[in-house]
Write a structure and sequence with these properties.
The complex is a heterodimer of chains A (477) and B (933). Chain A is an all-alpha fold and 477 residues long. Chain A is built from 20 helices and two strands. In chain A, strand 1 and strand 2 form a beta hairpin. In chain A, helix 6 packs across helix 7. In chain A, 65% of the residues are buried. Chain B has 933 residues and is mainly alpha-helical. In chain B, helix 7 packs antiparallel against helix 10. The relative contact order of chain B is 0.05. The chains are: A mainly alpha (477), B mainly alpha (933). At the A-B interface, helix 6, helix 8, helix 9, helix 12 and helix 17 of A face helix 6, helix 7, helix 26, helix 27 and helix 31 of B.
Chain lengths: 477, 933
């Protein structure tokens, strides 16, 4: 007689809430008219707010395992989840106008978005390779569908196809790796794997499993040489979807790396460090250099993402708590900043005009000095110029790798961030020094302007007072 | 807290000024002046402390978690610089009020200036190096804004960008250096770092640290080879040049050298790098300055040269040289700021800066000319002016070095040559502008500037004179504390007198003065030579070429990597995965084959394996002929099921067999709409490349499988074998797992299967596609779609097949079989009817509506699960009992049976739903001829 124990559902309350709400919205959305679609939007935002409150209310309990140790609720996960909600909610707010103008303001976007959030939450809270994979696939499938969401767009369809084929391949690799880990450890439990690894760190199957797991992770993060999907998807997808992909899933991917590599395979640090060094260096170099040649802003930001992923990997490969918290800080900051940058594209766009070429930003200062200033702050934050928060993100990551004596790595990273600064500066130059080509009025409504201003000024404020966020990242490690 | 507020005040003041400018131009100026005075007021209570020998350190918690606090430090050096920044800042604010024309925005300039002032104060008052770096980058940013103040001018934008690119990049290098310093000493605080000079110099990271820090300092202070941005920054309004590019910002680099002097100096590396850069800059700046026709260009190169002089003094690194260096910082700031302001007045009053057009301005503005002459004399190093004193100290140091090194004589010679050029360009500045004929076609008739525009120049020129005449009474105490805090040791003995007797330095001064005058007199041919090569040696072109080069490289790499071809992406992806796998493999040199003993090989297995290999290869070779390939793939599946039989897994074998049948039928239905041959689309080279990769990957996976299979492992199978009967009441472990141990999973799976069926139905419903009516060779399909023999044969088979499926379903719990297999058998049997008898015939006998079947199946399965709630057990708890059943024998009735029935129904329903609708897609009757529905 095999019995199910009733698991403790409380730690998973936010997940359960999001799942329920996503299903409710899915059904509910079928019965409302196009004019009332705003209700779906409000419900989606409400779901995220509710989930945030649930997560915060759970944050006092510390580390709890449930569902036969397949699910963990811990401080790191809670902080990451809060940022996932926050980022996604802001993405939704940014997206509304864009979708509306193009007749895409449908429930699917928000429902898929919420399912994606659920996937991310499961990834963040996974304590078993099975849960992790389930969350990842839930997220990935939502993303594939979202990329193809604008069905009459050829480039979006092509991007979705590429993303799907490569994504499936990567998931396959990840599973292959996981199966090897399982073969050696005899368990899917992260803690169980960790215990086995500690006993036999030189098992060859384990190392091969590790290699394939790293391939899968590198793909999901978008690290070179597994980055090829990033530019195409970023450029091809509708801007709100690009924004969605670029922001919160990076946080989830970071959590996945932490759970798998650090918690599960921490004792193989020496082995994965080498792999991550290669990935990080390649990402920083290729990402920054290729970004220079781009004329499409979304594509440029895609390459910039790749280089930022390199930095995130730097902190992780340091293998110290300082490094992990630095990476976490970096990924959160990056998600917030990239959201703002894509938000600006949306703010400037209107029906029939995407504003996603760098030339579309020409003379923005003459058209709207305020928005130009906001964009400048965002670009400075991406480039890592003080006093924006991007600087501290880079600083703490570099500090952490200097502490483990990888000085050459730090120097290379610094040199290529100089190269990187160049293309961010080019945007600023374009906005301030060039004559505007597009002279139409900027259509963005007041809500968009307020959000983008808060977003940008937030980067500045966090740069002047980074203590709180940094403190969080350190405490939860 | 005073220091913190002193730094913060200008930042807040910038906002205030921007706001105040709404009320008028003078309001902005007054507000800006007030802000600078307020900052000074914050500092004033502390001013006496550095003179008393104490270093003020004030700490403010900021990021306690990472050990980064806002820490400010006021010592002699900081005091000196803060004084320069605020003092000259006040003068510049006054000057700018009259310099800017009506069209220019007053508020913007003052706001930027105050931003810069705050950043610069931050740099010189920081105790923490990271904090210093933040302010350092802020000076780069605010200088960018100031240079680009006239943003409609192309030159201003270019100059601003270049300055930001160079100094910003230098700042990042400095960041690297600071991180290394922090790593070496364990702290970013100056008090710690300055005290651990020996530790730093002895550390293996010393050289990289030094180079990175120097990169930061040299870019900021426009040292060779990074000097070229400074002349282009002259596009800024003149007050900005006077403030940033003579007195303060460019001094940040030498400030850093002074600040870190105790920590980094005293090694040959330091001497060579710092001294070498300083010497090159000194000479280069002086030579180029002589030939510049632009008034501000001349001053810019002269500034470069003087910064080189200061750097050289720090490079010489004797305590006396450091005193001289600090002294020259003061002197240069005073005379160069006044010269810039004078140049600004001239520009302002004449409308041009080209020295070839203005001559004889003496008659229009004698007072300004006098002021400029005094300042220029100081720049040239004429005795009785302040520039002479520090230059004389350099000459002393240089002549002393002469005896210590083998090529030491080069130093005094070069320094003297630079001195000659300095005298010559100072002379040119005076003579070309104020004397020597009448001005040519000036845009405006010049006259003396407004009263208050002259005041700042007067003040500075007065300082030149006073310091030059009475150094010991005026500047000595400040110099003493500044130099002492730079050295962090006791000061050497020195005398600030003007007259030191007849020593080599005096002769060098005399040579410079006489030589300078001579050089000026014979400069014409040199000047022509320079004009001819002007532009060819322009660093701006180098800079642009560098940027272009970067762009070209970026484009090449993009063209190489970013192709957008999915095939390429997949190739790269798999290739690198292979590489990483190989890395994982070679990371540990253990053997491929594990310790597990191999099973004996029998002839039958060998034969089956060989057949499998041959068929697989055949599939690859024949894959363009789709039908053949499909048949072969089916064959592979069959052989695989044989392998399952060999390893005693009858359930798997059965499932494999049936799944194979269903998939082949499915593919056949799809193939009907597709061309019968796949076209050749890729180049043979590419195919062989892909083939090679495929071989490697296959080999890798094979090797991996070998490695895994030859190693001992504990299987979870044992658990199920042991618990299958006791826990699930069945001896067929596979089935017990499906319906009991992992019943929850199965429930999920059948739900997915049902949904997939519904989705296919939703997609294909009412979809009609016309298939071809001919085969690839152009022949029509056979007219007889349903051959009679086939049809009657399958009708006979149907009851038999159904019986088998019921049998399999019932015995499934203990013997090979179960709901899934039984469902497939039923589905295959029914599909056969469709294939052999046609859709119409079958539909007249069997409802095409499979939704109820699927629904009922799901319902039964779910209800079974819920049923256990009734008895107080959790969801899907199973129970079982035994009963006699005629014909079948002892029969075990488990609640799992009902669950299995659900599975059976869902499988039948969903499979039929999918296949029928695929089959119905091309209409009831095949299309004849061209065209379709």
């Amino acid at each position: 007689m095999v019995n199910f124990e009733i698991p403790n559902f409380v730690p998973a309350l936010p997940e359960i809430f999001v799942l329920t709400m996503a299903c409710v919205i899915l059904i509910f959305d079928l019965f409302i008219k196009d004019n009332d679609r705003i209700v779906t939007f409000v419900l989606a935002i409400g779901t995220l707010v509710g989930a945030m409150m649930l997560t915060i209310s759970l944050s006092e309990t510390g580390r709890v395992l449930t569902f036969n140790d397949m699910f963990v609720s811990d401080p790191m996960g809670n902080v990451l989840k809060v940022f996932i909600y926050l980022v996604t909610a802001v993405v939704f707010i940014y997206s509304r106008q864009y979708l509306k103008q193009r007749g895409l303001f449908k429930g699917e976007y928000f429902v898929l978005g919420l399912f994606g959030v659920l996937g991310m939450m499961v990834m963040v809270s996974a304590h078993s390779m099975l849960t992790l994979y389930m969350g990842l696939e839930l997220l990935s499938l939502s993303l594939y569908a979202m990329v193809a969401f604008q069905r009459d767009s050829l480039s979006a369809t092509e991007a979705a196809m590429k993303y799907f084929v490569l994504g499936a391949l990567a998931s396959g690799m990840l599973l292959y790796g996981m199966s090897m880990l399982y073969g050696v450890a005899g368990t899917l439990d992260i803690a169980g794997i960790s215990a086995v690894v500690a006993q036999s760190p030189n098992n060859i199957i384990l190392l091969l499993g590790l290699a394939f797991v790293v391939v899968g992770l590198a793909f999901k993060l978008g690290a070179v040489p597994f980055h090829m999907w990033v530019p195409d998807v970023y450029q091809g997808a509708p801007t709100p979807v690009t924004m969605y992909i670029g922001a919160a899933p990076k946080i989830a991917a970071f959590a996945m790396v932490m759970r798998l590599l650090v918690e599960g395979l921490g004792d193989l640090h020496g082995h994965w460090q080498t792999m991550l060094v290669v990935l990080a260096i390649l990402s920083i170099v290729i990402g920054n250099v290729v970004a220079i040649a781009q004329t499409n802003l979304k594509r440029m930001l895609a390459y910039s993402t790749i280089s930022h992923v390199g930095f995130i990997l730097l902190g992780i490969l340091a293998g110290t708590e300082n490094g992990y918290s630095a990476s976490m800080f970096y990924v959160v900051v990056y998600a917030l900043t990239s959201m703002g940058a894509f938000g600006m594209i949306i703010v400037l766009s209107r029906a029939g005009f995407e504003a996603d070429n760098i030339d579309d930003f020409k003379g923005l200062n003459e058209r709207s000095p305020w928005l130009a200033a906001m964009m400048m702050i965002l670009m400075f934050s991406m480039a890592g110029v003080p006093p924006t928060v991007g600087f501290y993100a880079k600083l703490s990551v570099l500090q952490s790798i200097v502490q483990v004596d990888l000085v050459w790595l730090a120097v290379t990273a610094v040199v290529f961030s100089v190269v990187g600064a160049f293309y961010y500066l080019r945007i600023i130059k374009t906005m301030y020094f060039d004559k505007p080509e597009d002279t139409a009025k900027i259509e963005a409504g007041m809500d968009m302007r307020i959000v983008i201003s808060l977003n940008s000024l937030g980067m500045l404020a966090l740069g002047i007072f980074p203590a709180a966020l940094m403190q969080w990242c350190i405490v939860v490690m | 807290m005073n220091l913190f507020f002193a730094v913060l005040t200008p930042f807040l003041g910038a906002v205030l000024v921007a706001w105040a400018s709404r009320f008028g131009r003078s309001h902005a100026a007054w507000a800006a002046g007030g802000v600078a005075l307020t900052a000074l007021a914050w500092l004033s209570p502390l001013l006496s402390q550095p003179f008393a020998g104490t270093t003020v350190v004030q700490r403010l918690e900021w990021m306690p978690s990472v050990g980064l606090d806002l820490v400010f430090r006021l010592d002699g050096l900081g005091l000196l610089f803060a004084g320069l920044i605020l003092g000259i800042g006040l003068l510049v604010i006054l000057y700018a009020r009259y310099y800017l024309s009506e069209r220019d925005s007053m508020g913007r300039l003052y706001a930027y200036l105050l931003l810069f002032m705050g950043s610069m104060l931050g740099v010189v008052l920081s105790e923490n190096l990271i904090q210093l770096l933040i302010f350092w980058e802020l000076t780069s940013l605010s200088s960018f804004l100031l240079i680009a103040y006239w943003r409609e001018r192309e030159m201003a934008r270019m100059g601003a960008r270049m300055a930001l690119a160079i100094t910003g990049a230098g700042g990042l290098a400095l960041l690297g250096g600071i991180l290394l310093l922090g790593e070496i000493t364990g702290s970013y605080e100056l008090s710690v770092i300055l005290a651990s000079g020996d530790l730093i110099r002895g550390h293996s990271l010393y050289l990289p640290t030094l180079i990175l820090v120097l990169l930061g300092a040299f870019t900021k202070s426009a040292q060779f080879p990074f000097h070229f941005w400074l002349p282009h920054a002259m596009a800024a309004p003149t007050p900005v040049s006077a403030y940033l590019h003579s007195a303060t910002m460019v001094k940040a680099g030498v400030f850093l050298l002074a600040r870190l002097f105790p920590a980094l100096s005293g090694t040959p590396e330091w001497s060579w790098l710092v001294g070498g850069a300083g010497l090159c800059t000194l000479l280069l700046g002086a030579v180029v300055a002589l030939f510049k026709h632009d008034l501000k260009g001349l001053l810019a190169y002269s500034t470069i040269s003087h910064l080189g002089l200061i750097t050289l003094l720090f490079g010489i690194a004797t305590p006396m040289a450091v005193v001289a260096g600090v002294f020259h910082i003061i002197n240069h700031a005073i005379f160069k700021a006044s010269l810039f302001m004078a140049a600004g007045i001239i520009d302002h009053e004449t409308g041009t800066r080209d020295m070839r057009r203005m001559q004889g301005l003496w008659q229009f503005m004698p007072f300004t000319a006098t002021l400029a002459m005094v300042a220029a004399a100081s720049m040239a190093g004429v005795p009785l002016f302040n520039g002479f004193l520090s230059k004389e100290m350099l000459f002393v140091e240089a002549s002393e070095m002469a005896s210590q090194q083998s090529f030491g004589w080069l130093l005094p010679v070069t320094v003297t040559v630079a001195g000659i050029f300095a005298v010559a360009y100072s002379l040119r500045f005076i003579h070309d502008v104020f004397f020597g004929g009448k001005p040519l076609e000036l845009p405006r008739t010049p006259h003396e500037p407004p009263r208050w525009m002259k005041v700042p120049v007067e003040v500075l020129v007065l300082l030149c004179l006073v310091v030059g005449l009475f150094p010991a009474q005026t500047v000595a105490p400040l110099l003493a504390v500044a130099a002492a805090s730079t050295l962090q040791t006791a000061l050497p003995e020195y005398n600030l007198a003007i007259w030191h007797g007849f020593n080599p330095a005096l002769w060098m001064s005399v040579t410079a003065l006489v030589g300078g005058v001579l050089l000026y007199l014979v400069r014409r041919p040199f000047s022509l030579l320079h004009d001819r090569f002007e532009g060819q040696l322009d660093a701006r072109r180098l800079y642009n070429a560098l940027l272009q080069g970067l762009m070209v490289i970026a484009r090449r790499i993009t063209a190489l990597l970013d192709v957008g071809s999915l095939q390429r992406m997949v190739f790269v992806f798999i290739g690198f995965a292979l590489l990483l796998g190989w890395m994982g493999w070679s990371g540990d040199r253990s053997v491929l084959t594990g310790s597990r003993p191999l099973l004996p090989v029998d002839a039958m297995s060998l034969l089956v394996t060989a057949v499998l290999t041959v068929i697989s290869v055949a599939v690859v070779i024949l894959h363009r002929q789709r039908f053949t390939a499909l048949v072969l793939v089916g064959f592979v599946g069959l052989v695989v099921s044989l392998i399952f039989v060999k390893f005693s897994a009858p359930d798997l074998a059965l499932t494999q067999l049936l799944v194979e049948v269903v998939t082949v039928v499915l593919l056949l239905l799809a193939l009907y709409f597709l061309p019968q041959h796949s076209p050749v689309e890729s180049h043979p080279l590419r195919r062989s490349r892909d083939g090679l990769l495929a071989l490697l990957v296959g080999g890798g996976v094979g090797a991996l499988a070998w490695a895994v299979l030859t190693r001992p492992h504990s299987s979870i199978g044992d658990f199920f074998l042991a618990n299958s009967v006791s826990g699930g009441g069945g001896s067929n472990v596979v089935n017990v797992i499906l319906v009991d141990f992992r019943g929850f999973d199965t429930l999920g799976e059948i739900t997915v299967l049902a949904l997939a069926g519904l989705a296919v139905y939703a997609l294909l419903e009412k979809l009609h596609i016309s298939g071809p009516s001919q085969n690839a060779d152009g022949r029509d399909w056979n007219w007889d779609l349903h051959p009679v023999i086939m049809a009657s044969f399958t009708r006979l088979l149907l009851p038999l097949a159904l019986l088998v499926s019921v049998f399999i379903l019932l015995r499934g719990h203990n013997l090979p079989g179960g709901g899934f297999i039984a469902g497939l058998v039923t589905a295959v049997a029914l599909i056969m009817q469709y294939l052999a008898n046609g859709v119409a015939w079958t539909h007249s006998r069997l409802s095409a509506n499979m939704h109820p079947v699927v629904g009922v199946g799901l319902l039964i399965a779910t209800l079974t699960g819920l049923g256990s709630f009734v008895f107080g057990y959790p969801f899907l708890t199973s129970t079982f009992g035994h009963m006699k059943w005629p014909l079948v024998g002892d029969f075990e009735l488990a609640s799992a049976m009902a669950f299995d029935l659900g599975v059976y129904l869902v499988v039948v329903g969903a499979t039929l739903l999918i296949l029928i609708h695929l089959g119905l897609m091309h209409g009831k009757e095949p299309v004849r001829g061209k065209g379709g529905h």
